[in-house]
Design goal:
- 2 copies of one chain form a homodimer.
- Chain A is mostly helical.
- The first copy, chain A, is built from 13 helices and 13 strands.
- A 3-stranded antiparallel sheet of chain A has the order 3-4-5. A two-stranded antiparallel ribbon of chain A has the order 1-2. A two-stranded antiparallel ribbon of chain A has the order 6-9.
- In chain A, α10 crosses α11.
- Chains A and B meet through β5 of A and β5 of B.
Chain lengths: ~400, ~400
């Protein structure tokens, strides 16, 4: 019972993504998460928007600020979006940097007092793209400076961490897919918003790292954690694939291929998608699994077989992009499978937005709409990206 | 359809626990986990005993060594158990201490090279009870010295951590139930094995901490994480209860009450049990949940509603002990519920031992029998403790 990806289906999907973004996801957050008293956003919301924890995650401050600026710059210049984006950036400025070392925090109280900083520096990457959109929206150099500064701190800290106690000894050094992958997306965003001069170099360098060290044609997978030289680490951590993460990387690279008209990049992205589908698609229940062992052995992480919202979001983007770039109906079928499974299980028919955490069989594990990890990012980015991809197709 | 806890049922249960320990759990591990080449034990086994990761967790080295010594000292002096316990202690001595600061590692390679040390010091508590049993079994002072030394390092590091970067800032300091709870059990074991002189003081102090700071009659729960003075922390972490952990603490304290003939201690343990059952027992599917919010709000940890093996083990002990101490049939009924649910879902009928990780509905999430966290500890300790409790009852 397969749905053909024809003009009618594409128009229907385009509406689903656009209306979902503008009439469901975005209103849920703008209505419930804005802290008018202390600034910034409170994302720990239950299914009906009720606040369950006043703490603020720094990732989510940057991500929502980015989304609002992105919508203002690329959908329509609604003043309320720009105002909210400025509200987010103000909280970033005032509370999210540690003056003692310039690094960003990870977790704050409602009032902006710091609770936790992490060993890595992804708060910086999300702040960078937020500042970038505000620079583009307002034309103010100060935002562009902050975007460049936080991007620099993101890459500097990841390449050469200072002042943090390493989690592991030097006995079995490893590196993760996250850094090159997030570097690609961050540089793509900053190239678009502030014309970051060395964006292409960072993207080239990151894609080269992924191709050389993480993409294994022997194991037919994208390795999440490898040795510094790309060696396979035959232990729990080194064998654990994160197919949703690899799907995300796949579409970043396909997008780069599309923008540059570079078929080699598109092929790399397709290969990452194919491998990640082979490992990640759950043949028994549907949906993309969180962690899968590259050799089919058991995984150590407890939530390995849960269905989180974001791997589905990233797979929906990757498969749609693959279909539109290649016209290959195989990708159209994959897109239908993941789209239909996700839309059957994740949306909350009563209060809108998506649930975040389902069991393997698609039943609900938690009623949370947001927390330190989930906020208005993967879902609305998927809705925006897929809507725009389909809209371009119709032109 | 309730089973009365009569003489026949108790005799049947005693057999189930004893035979399970000696004919199922113990042989599974002695057959599959011993590393004859590099020493110590490799616990990352699949359901059939096949090795899936050669790395060694330090907790499990200490815990299995303790179990073997405990069996030698309290069940029967089988030479093979003593030899294996010495084999474990030798690996602890040779590889599990960091010479640079005397602290113990958490995670090693097969060869004993260090991969990770943690901020806390529970490796030390498990090593302490392992050395204690060997001191009792062999009469050698050197083991007793090591038991005292590692116990001292365990309490010293937890009360005054040195040389570790704290995970959180000073903005919202908290403390956990784990330290006083593990201190009770460790001191009880060392009092029994080496006559630790200040064992009772440590136990009294820890019980006082739990009663004063963690046991909340207002919220009817045992708080896992509280402020330094026991204040309720109304955020995800402060609200998250760990009912299996509190059940474990409950029987440590009931046991202390039983040994001292102190009804007040028994009552504290019963109260902890009652509260933890109210929050932790899953009325819908059965079994004890991993995390539950004390106010009924959603929990942030992903695996909150999974059924892990060890909370069931600890609840089986706590409810049986409560029944035998009070004769109250309510506890007999609780024991039947948790015993029957656990024995229906966790044992592996094909290869023996228990699975560790089930979904909320009791279906299996992972085929692993062991990893860095699961090894021969909670299950065999439950089997031994319950068997011995029931055996004493018959005398």
């Amino acid at each position: 019972m397969s749905i053909e990806m024809n003009q009618g289906r594409m128009e229907e999907l385009s509406r689903v993504y656009r209306d979902g973004l503008l009439e469901d996801t975005l209103p849920f957050w703008t209505k419930h998460c804005v802290d008018h008293e202390h600034g910034g956003f409170m994302m720990s919301l239950d299914r009906d928007g009720r606040l369950v924890d006043t703490d603020k995650g720094v990732w989510q401050q940057g991500r929502f600020t980015w989304l609002l600026g992105e919508l203002y710059n690329n959908v329509e210049p609604r003043e309320e979006w720009l105002e909210l984006a400025k509200h987010g950036a103000e909280f970033l400025d005032q509370h999210c940097f540690d003056p003692s070392d310039g690094r960003m925090w990870f977790h704050l109280t409602r009032e902006g007092e710091p609770i936790r900083k992490r060993r890595y520096a992804f708060s910086e990457s999300f702040a960078a793209i937020a500042y970038g959109e505000l620079a583009k929206a307002t034309g103010e150099d100060e935002y562009a400076d902050k975007a460049r500064m936080t991007f620099k701190r993101f890459v500097d800290h990841n390449l050469n961490p200072q002042g943090v106690e390493p989690k592991f000894t030097e006995v079995r050094p490893t590196k993760s897919l996250a850094f090159p992958m997030i570097t690609i997306a961050t540089a793509q965003e900053l190239r678009d918003s502030i014309g970051l001069p060395d964006a292409n170099e960072w993207i080239d360098r990151s894609i080269e790292t992924i191709r050389r060290d993480h993409l294994s044609s022997e194991l037919r997978c994208v390795l999440e954690t490898v040795g510094p030289d790309g060696a396979f680490v035959d232990h729990f951590d080194g064998r654990s694939l994160n197919p949703g993460h690899a799907m995300e990387g796949a579409w970043f690279i396909m997008l780069e291929g599309k923008l540059r008209g570079d078929d080699g990049l598109v092929k790399t992205g397709l290969q990452m998608l194919n491998y990640s589908w082979e490992h990640g698609w759950d043949e028994e229940y549907g949906g993309i699994l969180y962690f899968v062992d590259s050799k089919g052995l058991p995984v150590q992480e407890y939530w390995h077989d849960m269905k989180f919202w974001w791997p589905q979001n990233e797979t929906i983007i990757a498969t749609l992009m693959a279909f539109l770039l290649t016209g290959d109906e195989m990708y159209g079928q994959m897109h239908s499978k993941i789209h239909d499974w996700a839309y059957k299980h994740f949306p909350d028919p009563e209060h809108g937005e998506w649930f975040g955490y389902l069991h393997r069989d698609g039943s609900r594990s938690s009623s949370l709409k947001g927390n330190l990890w989930k906020g208005p990012f993967h879902l609305p980015r998927m809705q925006l990206t897929c809507w725009k991809l389909l809209e371009l197709e119709r032109v």
